[in-house]
């Protein structure tokens, strides 16, 4: 019996870095993204880890929580802007009236709890913009 032709290998989806310090939320985000074929880096829950992965792996787009174990994620947003890597803010905080918040101007904000369709659409739009 002849071998069936192998199915063509699917192109991987976007490479998304998840920056989120809440373990269960991070796993939920990872699952949402992998379910639609995105490749996921992380999740990572600290500023230092996020900066290291951004520099080493250069994700296509980032899902960024603003408060990482009490530390502001503004340095991550600054690095992303410098490297021209698009990001979506996933945070309960809807205003950016704090020191350094101006770097977030124009970023899409997805409130928590995160709805899968909203996150996927926002990440895709940020990447294509």
TrEMBL record:
InterPro entries per record: Bact_response_regulator (IPR050595), CheY-like_superfamily (IPR011006), Sig_transdc_resp-reg_receiver (IPR001789)
SMART domains: REC
Signal peptide location: none
The keyword Phosphoprotein is annotated on this UniProt entry: yes
Keywords on record: Phosphoprotein
Residues with 4-aspartylphosphate modification: 65
Gene3D superfamilies (UniProt xref): 3.40.50.2300
Keyword flag Phosphoprotein: yes
Domain spans labelled Response regulatory: 15-127
Pfam families, per database record: Response_reg
Identification of the protein by name: Response regulator receiver domain-containing protein
